[in-house]
Amino acid sequence: MSSVVIGYLLVYCLLSIIRDCVCFTVRMETAVDVEKGTAAIKQQFLTSKEKFHEFLESGRSGEKGDGPDKDPEEPSEEPEKKRMKLDNDGDRKEKKRMRGQNKCRPHVKPQSYEDKRLCPSIIQERETKCFYGAKCRFIHDVSEYMSTKAEDLGEQCYLYNNFGKCQYGLTCRFAKAHTSPDLKNLVNEDLYKQACDKETVRNNLDKDLQKRLRKKQVPFTGADAYLKTISRGKKPEEKITDKCPAVKEENHNSSGETTADNQQTQDPPVKTIGPITDADIIKLRPCEKKQVDFRDKLYLAPLTTCGNLPFRRICKRFGADITCGEMAMCTNLLQGQASEWALLKRHQSEDLFGVQLEGCFPDTMTRCAELLNQNIDVDFVDINSGCPIDLVYKKGGGCGLMTRTSKFEQIVRGMNSVLDVPLTVKIRTGVHQNSNIAHKLIPELKKWGVSLITLHGRSREQRYTKLADWEYIHTCSNIAAPVPLFGNGDILSYEDAMKARETGVSGLMVARGALFKPWLFTEIKENRHWDISSSERLDILRDFTNYGLEHWGSDTQGVEKTRNFMLEWLSFLCRYIPVGLLEKLPQKINERPPFYMGRDYMETLMASQHVGDWIKISETLLGPVPKNFSFLPKHKANAYK
Question: Catalytic: which of 157, 172, 387, 574?
Answer without folding.
Answer: 387
